[in-house]
Design goal:
- The chain is of the alpha/beta class.
- It has a single domain, classed as 3-Layer(aba) Sandwich (Rossmann fold).
- Helices cover about 35% and strands about 15% of the residues.
- Strands 1-2-4-3-5-6-7-8 form an eight-stranded mixed sheet, with helices on both faces.
- A hairpin with a 2-residue loop joins strand 1 and strand 2.
- The relative contact order is 0.14.
């Protein structure tokens, strides 16, 4: 007798690119697959966590590719940038060329699978955020594995945030991150709360990697459908964690206790995003804790967006609206809910 299948058996089939998205978005999806329809990013081999030399070679290659892709935007940017160090943290402080849209600061955590995306890529990213938001942007060039595993990146984010608090009220700060940066941004808010620090006005999480255990439905459903992030990042996660518990809230913020206080949050993903489950599960967890949260799911969008399609411009406009609205209203929103202070429970410890 055959053992029943514990799931849904889907016949082999081609999944067409959706016609329900812009022509620019469709073109972006087509550029990311080969002639056989296989995502180009699925053709790369990833070393095991213990192969540090292999990871260093992969980092050099990936950062060179990221740098070349970002360099094409550098000439269009107007924001100036200065690089400074605070304790262990390297921070690129970008300032818009025109009049500031306010006195708030955006603290940005870059993406890159917790391993890539530092250096010049982070520096250009800070300038992009400053231009798009009209705000001073602090881009944290956090340390990464294999040289610097967890909690180095989180420590660097916290060092930058503590420095910001010396010069700005918490209600004038918004923390944001994309992908792996979304993991760090959410973990920073949890850790700041646990350490009794004042919390920022709001949090922006773009396709956030908030579950390093990869337990959500979309990790199965959107494999290879997400043309930018077609496969699991578990080897990255294990390299980053270096033996720490992947389910700890400082590594997987999805599993944090939001009832003890959190901040208004903007969460974004796409229907083809490998991390879609991260976004929808985090939204529900925040809503159950009565934390204000906006969830924005874009049709046909893979991880990281369409690289310049109208949908990306729409997303940027939504982020700018959210950031400026919460900076304006932040003075009365230091903690959600206000009556549940962090001192009500002992601070969590890094595993």
């Amino acid at each position: 007798m055959n053992t029943p299948v514990d799931g849904v058996r889907v016949p082999a089939r081609d999944i067409p690119f959706p016609r329900s998205i812009s022509a620019e978005a469709q073109a972006a999806l087509r550029r990311l697959v080969d002639a056989e329809g296989v995502p180009l990013n699925a053709l790369h081999d990833v070393p095991p966590p213990g192969d540090h030399a292999g990871w260093m070679r992969l980092k050099a290659s990936a950062d060179a590719q990221y740098g070349a892709a970002m360099a094409q935007f550098a000439g269009q940017l107007r924001a100036t940038v200065e690089t400074v160090r605070f304790d262990s943290a390297t921070v690129h402080i970008a300032t818009p060329a025109g009049p500031l849209a306010g006195d708030g600061v955006y603290l940005d955590l870059h993406g890159g699978g917790l391993v890539f995306g530092g250096g010049e890529v982070c520096r250009i990213g800070a300038r992009m955020q400053a231009d798009q938001l009209g705000l001073c942007c602090w881009g944290v060039d956090y340390r990464m594995p294999p040289e610097h595993p967890y909690p180095a990146a989180l420590d660097d984010g916290m060092a930058a945030y503590r420095q910001l608090l010396q010069h700005h009220p918490a209600q004038r700060i918004v923390i944001g991150g994309r992908s792996a940066g979304g993991n760090l941004a959410a973990a920073m808010v949890l850790r700041a709360r646990d350490e009794g620090l004042p919390l920022p006005a709001a949090l922006v999480l773009l396709s956030p990697e908030v579950d390093l255990t990869e337990s959500g439905d979309s990790f199965e459903l959107n494999q290879l459908v997400d043309v930018l992030l077609p496969r699991s990042l578990m080897l990255h996660n294990l390299l980053y964690a270096a033996g720490a518990d992947l389910a700890h809230p400082y590594l997987s913020p999805l599993f944090g206790d939001f009832s003890r206080g959190f901040v208004p949050t903007f969460v974004q993903s796409g229907t083809r995003d490998l991390f879609l489950s991260n976004a929808v599960r985090l939204h529900r967890a925040l809503r159950r804790a009565e934390v204000p949260c906006e969830l924005h799911i874009f049709e046909g969008m893979p991880h990281g967006g369409f690289m310049g399609a109208p949908e990306d411009r729409e997303l940027r406009a939504e982020v700018a609206r959210f950031v400026h609205a919460h900076l304006a209203a932040g003075a009365g929103r230091a903690l959600i809910p206000a009556t549940k202070a962090a001192v009500a429970a002992p601070a969590a410890r890094s595993p």
